[in-house]
Amino acid sequence: MSSIRQVGVETIFQITAPISPGSSGGPVLNTQGKVIGVTVATFKDGQNPNFAIPSYYLASLLRQIKPVTPLSAVIKPKQYKSIIDDIGGKSTGGVVAAQFTWYSIYGGQYSFSLRNQLREPATNVRCLVIFYDQSDNPIDVDVIFYGESKFSKGNIIPAGLAKRITSRVDGSV
Fold first, then answer.
1. Is residue 131 a contact partner of residue 138, using CB atoms and an 8 Å limit?
2. Read out DSSP for 134-160?
3. Domain locations in the chain?
4. Is residue 106 classed exposed, middle or buried when 0-12, 13-18 and 19+ CB atoms within 10 A define those classes?
5. How far is CA 114 from CA 1, 22, 67, 131, 137, in A?
6. What are phi and psi of 138, to 5 degrees?
7. Do 162 and 113 contact (CB within 8 A), yes or no?
8. How far apart are CA 92 and CA 96, in angstroms?
9. Which parts of the chain fold into alpha helices (H)?
10. Closest-CA residue to 97 (of 111, 85, 109)
11. Are 4 and 52 in contact (CB under 8 A)?
12. What is the bridge-based pairing of β-strands 162-168 and 10-15?
């Protein structure tokens, strides 16, 4: 510590130890290793004086600390709309499938669009595609997972946009 200064009625230490941007809040130690202050400011002009507040100010601040409230009690989690809520009616939100195309020349290959109608990006979208025969009997299913895995990173459908998905089932379908 090079000097003790008075700023109005408050005391501040001028120190010679260098302070970099982002170092505010670091401890200032005396020769016995005891915390005597906390770094708060530096001035780049002139001889680069650095400043710390005395640690006795911290004692009064610590007495004012209230019990910690978990973040989950303060911030409510986002409620995501599920298209399952819309079964029986037309979906107006969520991620919906559209523009189904069957490629008969490729034997079982098909594609469709996943449209994200949410206000935030969607990932980890799971689809169950059910294929029916002409008598409306299910004959095959395909489970599609569009999201992050160890094989594909960043499969995200941006808000308001769509991604084309291509898959394949048995050619007899």
1. yes
2. TTS-EEEEEEEEES--SS-----B-TT
3. 3-64, 83-168
4. exposed
5. 64, 44, 46, 18, 25
6. -65, 135
7. yes
8. 9
9. 56-64, 71-74
10. 111
11. no
12. unpaired
Q: Residue for token digits 């600390």?
A: 65
Distance of CA 137 to the CA centre of its chain: 43
Which CATH code fits 3-64? Answer: 2.40.10.10
Per residue in 45-80, is it b (16+ CB within 10 Å) or e — as a string?
Answer: eeeebbbbbbbeeeeeeeeeeeeeeeeeeeeeeeee
Predicted TM-score of the model (pTM): 0.42
Supply 72's token pair. 């989950």
Q: Write down the pLDDT at residue 45.
A: 66
CA-wise closest residue to 156 among 127, 113, 124: 124
Q: Express each pLDDT in 17-29 by its tens digit.
A: 878 777 788 888 8
